[in-house]
Specification:
306 residues; alpha/beta; Metallo-beta-lactamase, Chain A; Arc Repressor Mutant, subunit A; 6-stranded mixed β-sheet; globular; RibonucZ/Hydroxyglut_hydro
Length: 306
């Protein structure tokens, strides 16, 4: 078995120059699978085609998605049409492929009310939502794909098994091959963007049993020390939130203290909504654990340490 890491760049409109999605070709003696595809674009298509030609003569048998975010499935439709590779995703995340714009709308429903109540303007939220929908609209979502609850594939004698890794999304999975796991965004060096922090802490414990953890962005593979550092980063950020709300603070006041910015460029919407979504997840976790309480539109912490 051979693992071929690739980095698929983000388009300029994502406002993250120099960054991209980690994608992996995993090759057996004959078969070849791809784990996550990165975003679509002419340059990315040419890059993938060249990588496939060198790795397998252009053969691609399956595309396994770790979760349903567009930066992980963007090229899947193109590659399916070109190679016939079957696209596979956990059934809990298939909603993203069915209608990504709708999933953006549902995401904003989750954050919109607490954000407005917490001091963010409706206009800046609506502008960010509009730009995210425009970007989603220009990406081709796969029309044909297979869902699973549990997955096992044969790769020329190697077994590829799925493992549930909820937290970043509720349908996030990893793919286990030997002593390695491809985890998508379930663990990122320095990354702290999750939907459910309680689930994420459980996921990090699962990942510690593997010698190599192939991540969806940035440094890869990760080792046990990297996962320990990521746990520490989550704790540190939670304590930042506790300190910011010690005397009572609105959501926007906490946001400004923790993320050191009060405005965002609406043309790069992720700079607003990702930290905002994360902050709401942190506060909900801290509330469930008894560290903070909400009165009116203000949050109050009872401690500065976890």
């Amino acid at each position: 078995m051979e693992i071929i890491p690739l980095v698929i760049p983000f388009p300029a409109e994502f406002g993250r120059a120099g960054k991209g999605t980690n994608s992996y070709l995993v090759k057996g003696s004959e078969k070849c699978i791809m784990i996550d595809t990165g975003l679509d674009g002419e340059g990315n298509r040419a890059y993938i085609n060249d990588a496939l030609k060198r790795a397998s003569g252009g053969r691609l048998d399956a595309i396994l998605l770790t979760h349903g975010h567009i930066d992980h499935y963007g090229l899947a439709s193109y590659l399916h049409q070109k190679t016939g590779a079957v696209i596979m995703i956990n059934d809990k995340d298939s909603c993203y492929l069915d209608a990504y714009e709708k999933s953006i709308d549902e995401w904003f429903v989750r954050i919109y009310e607490p954000a407005v109540e917490g001091g963010f303007s409706k206009k800046e939220l609506d502008d960010a939502k509009m730009m995210m929908r425009i970007v989603a609209r220009i990406m081709n979502a796969p029309k044909e794909y297979t869902t699973f609850k549990e997955l096992r594939l044969d790769l020329d004698g190697w077994t590829v098994d799925s493992i549930d890794l909820p937290g970043h999304t509720m349908g996030s999975v990893g793919y286990v091959v030997g002593d390695a796991v491809f985890c998508g965004d379930a663990a990122l060096d320095g990354g702290v963007n999750v939907l459910d922090l309680k689930e994420e802490f459980v996921t990090l414990q699962k990942l510690k049993i593997f010698k190599k953890v192939y991540a969806g962005h940035g440094k890869t593979p990760l080792g046990p020390q990297d996962l320990e550092a990521l746990e520490g980063r989550f704790i540190s950020r939670l304590e930042d939130v506790l300190r910011a709300s010690r005397q009572g603070a609105t959501l926007k006041e906490i946001y400004e203290k923790v993320y050191f910015e009060s405005t965002s460029n609406p043309y790069i919407p992720y700079r607003l909504v990702h930290p905002l979504n994360q902050l709401i997840s942190y506060l909900r976790y801290l509330e469930s654990e008894g560290y903070v309480a909400k009165s009116g539109n203000r949050w109050m912490s009872f401690s500065e340490k976890i």
